[in-house]
Amino acid sequence: MTITLQSPPSSALSSSSSFSLQGRNLTLLSTLHFNSRRSFPLIRSSSSSIDAGLITELDSVSSFSEIVPDTVIFDDFERFPPTAATVSSSLLLGICSLPDTIFRNAVDMALADSSCCKLENSELRLSCFSNKALVNVGGDLAKLVPGRVSTEVDARLAYDTHGIIRKVHDLLRLYNEIDVPPERLLFKIPSTWQGIEATRLLESEGIQTHLTFVYSFAQAAAAAQAGASVIQIFVGRLRDWARNHSGDPEIEAALKRGEDPGLALVTKAYNYIHKYGHKSKLMAAAVRNKQDLFSLVGVDYIIAPLKVLQSLKESVTAPDEKYSFVRRLSPQSASMYDFSDEELTKWDQLSLASAMGPASVELLAAGLDGYVTQAKRVEELFAKIWPPPNV
């Protein structure tokens, strides 16, 4: 797989693997632009607002960060145009629950694949079916969105570096067989140490990755050192953990400074990436309200709920009201941020494990458990419905 890491082609990915499918309506969660020139349509105010010389809050914050929707419906291109998608076990379950969706044929064809059907080992056969289904659906999505399709890597491999790499190579080979070019693809990998190490090796091959379940500075810094294309931090999930738990040094330090722990982690990770010249892009997800978004203005990508985007879009102000937003995060401010010697370490497995507090350990484990459960459910379902009728 050959990908240009500098000035990547117009592309995108989604930060969530959940979809709502009814008939021909496909709901994508969290699309993300990768083209800094923004050749795809962005969320903007209505033409009437523009004609009246008004500037929306959405326009203002979009001048500093890529603001992308947490829910985009294909039938609503004009308001919130989708640019990319994630294909995952969760999506496969949704497709199988609604047989009339436009993607059901992609799943049925995967279950009829001769190379999978001839495998005598049932475990290998079901894994083969799952891989084919992910890629077939990903191929269909690639025809519907202009940006990238992010493919979730089996979370059961989260602690197996070489297993992750083999899985990515298998998926790439299958995508190649259906003529989906590598520049349209990214691979979503959990931020265990083994996942981070797999990311380092894959990125060295030119395969772009998206590290998810980042809940600590140590994970974010190690991911940046590994050269991850995208690093995803869930702001709201850290806040939720802090409301119900205690004893995490990183979170306690943020609270002592009067800061929200999720916003503080994004700020610190952004400053680290930009101060030390890492190529990674930072994505803030699980943003819950407008204040969260305003506090993150300047970060590379912000995934925002539809209700927040709608509120931003409807809030307009005349230019003469001197209405403006302050950019909270910038390469200039990052250059002045001070890091301790401990934070500037060359991260390895031992130092990462020592630095991850209870919040990141628990939230990472919870995320992995959810992904593993979904993958198992897909295989159990495929075992029941294979072979599919009328194929």
Automatic annotation (TrEMBL):
This is transaldolase. InterPro entries: Aldolase_TIM, TAL/FSA, Transaldolase_1. PANTHER family: TRANSALDOLASE. Pathway: Carbohydrate degradation; pentose phosphate pathway; D-glyceraldehyde 3-phosphate and beta-D-fructose 6-phosphate from D-ribose 5-phosphate and D-xylulose 5-phosphate (non-oxidative stage): step 2/3. Coiled coil: none annotated. Belongs to the transaldolase family. Type 1 subfamily. Keywords: Cytoplasm, Pentose shunt, Schiff base. One of its GO terms (biological process) is carbohydrate metabolic process. Its EC number is 2.2.1.2. Pfam families: TAL_FSA (PF00923). GO terms for cellular component: cytoplasm. One of its GO terms (molecular function) is transaldolase activity. It comes from the Eukaryota. SUPFAM superfamilies: Aldolase.
